[in-house]
Amino acid sequence: MKGLSDEGGLFVPETLPKIDIPLRELSEMDYRETAFCIMRSFLTDFTDDELKDCISKAYDEKFDTDGIAPLRKAGNAWYLELFHGKTIAFKDMALSILPHLMITAAKKNGEKNEIVILTATSGDTGKAALAGFADVPGTRIIVFYPKDGVSHVQKMQMVTEKGKNTLVIGVNGNFDDCQTGVKKMFSDMDLRSRILEKGYRFSSANSINIGRLVPQIVYYFYAYCSLLKKGVIKDKEKINFVVPTGNFGNILAAYYAMNAGLPVNKLICASNENKVLFDFFNTGSYDRNREFILTSSPSMDILISSNLERLIYAVSGEDAVKNTAFMESLRAEGEYRITDDMKEKLNCFKAFYASERDTADKIRNLYKASGYVIDTHTAVAASAYDSYLKECGDMSVTVIVSTASPYKFAGSVMSSIDGSYGEMEDFALIDELSRISGVPVPKAVSEIKDAEILHKTECEKDKMMELVEAYLT
Ligand SMILES: *Cc1c(COP(=O)(O)O)cnc(C)c1O
Predict the structure, then answer these.
(1) What pLDDT does 206 receive?
(2) Which atom of ligand 1 is nearest to the CA of 249?
């Protein structure tokens, strides 16, 4: 419920549990049963009944496929489609369940205050969190997005949100500005006591909240077990995961899955042109002092990857003092360099990046070769996998984590396939995408077509707190 610690640090499990159910056994389970087996070893404060209740409310008909997280083979890799939820991005996997976990936790703790979810979004978290918390009694949700840094569909999804307990604000800045502003509010003790007097308590739906990460561990096990069940891999065979990365939440969940016993060969961290993580894994130096680039994969346009803090903690031998020094250096100087010992512990990671050109080429080439259309974020990962293969020649079975539906980025996706699509208007492109891919237009897209714009507030990055206080009267 707390989101962030009082000092502004992130919560981590005291010890990572080992999943001791045989993978063969897990592979006979559906998504909900798998989620229960994995999550109960992490979220030990919940009873089995509470957890089962949260899971059954989260992973239901909101998803447009029974499998919840299906795998699809295209080219030389398996694509784990995590975009079958309400807002057609992988954020739904965690944000469908987070509100239920939070309400359950609030009840258990006798919480009397209204919970106010403060969210910074690079585009996808915003709508997924709004969808999860809209009209949930006892909660309000405030979302800050970079007003010129999200796709048309992403923006429309957010500003047409109907929930009565929602506030959506466009910030004149980038995602890092939004995230920094939100983190500042969390660690502002004066603000916290002022709003507490009015009966509110802040919490976070960003992946800085451990309640976001734990549900993401599930689909790594589920993907592995699906391959096992299909006979693609043998029991205990190690596989690769390629993860299109921004705030480092998704790939950190993969790392936790590996440490909990999932047989993983390499975790391949894919960046777009904001390649701060590529540089970090290759040099040991994290340096955010660089130009922020707006790309066609906006959910990965991030220079401060918050969840890396949790990885740094793990490889520093869980040394909180050391960890704080790195984070302090990041805050003050915009950079830090880890020791060689620590870097050695990162050998399970490989990092690559894709330029805008690589990304577009990948979308077009995969479509031409297989008929499968992927979104820009997934294409960054697929292109990074090509680079990995070229460099390492490793033939292990590989899962590319597909984080969004191509419909969410129809403009960029279609003009990658054919330059002449650039002339077409958004909804015409969406129909054309449906025609060429044979995939019906998802409800998340068709329903915004004629929806009324309900949220028009915009602000400067230093005015975020004022707006929050004005809203919480
Ligand atoms: C959020 C997001 C990412 C990045 O995930 P992180 O957990 O922030 O690394 C990648 N792709 C899409 C489509 C996203 O919405």
Answers:
(1) 86
(2) 7
> How many separate helices (H) and strands (E) can be counted in the chain?
21, 13
Question: So what's the pLDDT on residue 3?
Answer: 85
Question: In this structure, which amino acid lies at residue 335?
Answer: E
* Mean pLDDT value across residues 158-171: 96
Q: What is the pLDDT of residue 7?
A: 83
- 362 catalytic per annotation: no
The partner residues of 120 in beta bridges, in order of sequence, read: 144
Q: How far is the C-alpha of 201 from the C-alpha of 233, rounded, in Å?
A: 47
Kindly state if the Cβ of 245 falls inside 6 Å of ligand 1: yes
Nearest CA to ligand 1 atom 2: 299
Nearest-atom number in ligand 1 for the CA of 253 is: 7
- Could you identify the atom of ligand 1 that is nearest to the CA of residue 83? 13
Q: Are 141 and 455 in contact (CB under 8 A)?
A: no
- Size (the chain), residues: 473
Please report the pLDDT score of residue 284 as a whole number. 97
- Distance between CA 138 and CA 158 in Å, rounded? 21
Q: How far apart are CA 331 and CA 277, in angstroms?
A: 17
Alpha-carbon distance of 227 to 46, in angstroms, equals: 30
Q: Which of 406, 398, 378, 365 is nearest to 78 (CA)?
A: 398
* Share of residues in the chain with pLDDT > 90 (%): 91
Q: Which domains does the chain have, with CATH numbers?
A: 71-88+212-439 (3.40.50.1100)
Q: Tell the residue nearest (CA) to atom 1 of ligand 1.
A: 299
The reported pLDDT for the residue numbered 425 is 85
Query: Which pLDDT band, with edges at 50, 70 and 90, does 105 fall under?
Result: very high
pTM of the predicted model, to two decimals? 0.94
Exactly one of 2, 18, 73, 91 is catalytic; name it.
Answer: 91
Q: Is 244 touching ligand 1 by the criterion CB < 6 Å? A: yes
